[in-house]
Amino acid sequence: MTQARVDLNAIASRVPGTADVALILGSGLGAFADTFEDARAVSTSDLPGYPVSTVQGHAGRIVMGRVGKTRVMAFQGRVHLYEGYPPEMVVLPVRLAHSLGVKTLIVTNASGAMNKRFQPGDLLLIDDHINLQFRSPLRALWKDGVRCPDVSFFYDQELCQLAETVAMEQKIALKRGTLAALTGPNYETPAETRMLAKLGADAGCMSTVPEVMTAVALGMRVLGISCVTNLAAGLSDNKLDHEDVQLVAAQVSERFANLLSGILIRL
Question: What is the per-residue pLDDT for 142?
Fold first, then answer.
């Protein structure tokens, strides 16, 4: 499926309403959108040309609603490069949100800890990333006039400070760290875990970075929060399993929801 076959205007016309903030909910974290006030939802399978997620824990819905007075557009689930989609399709939610006038993007994901100061169940405030997917979604935006954006601060510092303030007020532990984006779908090897830790990665995921790159290129502010669901390969004797990722994400869902609600209310 190519970007040329997708009509953003046709998709946008079927989205029920507008929003101030877009929220992409990662593996096991989608239930937060079920708490919205005045919620209206559309299945992504009903949107012409929209990519369909094939990963367990990604519901495939767009939910429009409110958290406090903030209008929120939540994507319950995402698609990934490892599902066979090109980068321009992976970032379609960001382009759709931007086309509807959204100025702020909050991205979330499940990640594996590569730094021993992180444990399963921790919430990580992403303050930088290492892109090891080696594919850029910005190539598809070149024809639209998007050139080489400054990436000194992919993650908006004011939003990061707001997240830390809310976390402190709610007595929620929130650690800053650097996220490594890998292609997947396989988990990293123990040797790769050691390498990534030496490169400065605190946790690793298989998503998020293409969406962040696109949002910043389009002039959107970005906040990233990761739920650490497991220790990366080589840091424990446990075998890695996606069902365990979902289980840990569900266990921290209340803290995660409280943190996100507190942030959204103030935006």
Answer: 61
Largest separation between any pair of C-alpha atoms in the chain? 50
| Catalytic positions, written as ranges | 27, 58, 80, 82-83, 110, 206-207, 230, 242
Structure confidence by residue, pLDDT tens digits, 115-151: 999 999 999 999 999 999 988 888 776 666 665 666 7
| CATH number for the domain whose boundaries are 3-265 | 3.40.50.1580
Q: Sketch the domain layout of the chain as residue ranges.
A: 3-265
Any idea what the Cα angle at residue 80 is, between residues 247 and 143, rounded to 5°? 150
Q: How far apart are CA 266 and CA 160, in angstroms?
A: 13
**pLDDT (tens digit, 9 = 90+) per residue, 85-111?**
999 899 999 999 999 999 999 999 999
Per-residue pLDDT tens over the stretch 159-207: 999 999 999 999 999 999 999 999 989 989 999 999 999 999 999 999 9
